[in-house]
């Protein structure tokens, strides 16, 4: 019997076991069974090239299941609250992002101004406005509603570059959009929070500017400097930073889930639906806004992904800075796994749909011009 089949059978047994212990109210064991089930599913996905991109998200679900069933293990260790790890972890993640950037990523603005202006504008106009509309539709508590607006006001998600690559879209544009939206976030994110979320909670504009600067801008600049002056000298760091970033994101989500577990049990279903609508709206309106601007298909795909994916880690860090991790931090915590599932699905679907052969179109146009010149 093949290893793949054994893993699948093992996963089925775990799923059945989870349902049985849940039905008999043996919740002490249900969380462990659910966690191992997700781990086994992740192991199966990693064995298939087309599906391995989902493995990280499933591992996040495994960790979240433990946080939901046994939150006491992820809230504090002794007298030390684990929430103190969120900001340092986010700074490490943003440093890793900086090491992957260079000056040429910003120079690209000059080379493709239309795509950059359109992408950044769509991102910061569509997502905060859709978030505000969602809070008017769903009757969430004020701090939970503010969290939805917070995730909508954050810059592009770090996973957007990977999703863009999988979708065979414009990777150079994706990297540039992520960089630009990140660097303007200290002013833009607090502005939209004040405009849209000010009715729900008090927003200290300048405090948020400083929080974003120390959480995002300073680490990214440090990463840029590292890439400029020390790149290649610490090859091991280059190799392990993506793994460190993924572990960091997972830990942040787990700590937030544990802290907000009780509130999540109350609003969980509606919040998941609201966040899913928010995320999918970003893809939809981002793509069709770019189409209306008559941009190339690969640029339309890029902008759709960049609009729909948010920096959930930053949203969580800002919720912690406001002292409202268990309420304002819920939407970012829910948004992260959802956007990875939908983003991977969209990217793989686009990957199977070839882009128009622009080179052939350009060659045909050139041939027509030559023929016209001859006549």
TrEMBL record:
The keyword Membrane applies. Coiled coil: none annotated. InterPro entries: BilAc:Na_symport/Acr3, Bilac:Na_transpt, Na+/solute_symporter_sf. It is found in: Membrane. Gene3D superfamilies: 1.20.1530.20. It is a multi-pass membrane protein. Keywords: Membrane, Transmembrane, Transmembrane helix. The chain crosses the membrane at residues 5-23, 29-46, 53-70, 82-103, 115-138, 144-164, 171-193, 205-227, 239-259, 265-290, 329-350. The keyword Transmembrane applies. PANTHER family: P3 PROTEIN-RELATED, SODIUM-BILE ACID COTRANSPORTER. This is Bile acid:sodium symporter family protein. It comes from Ohtaekwangia kribbensis.
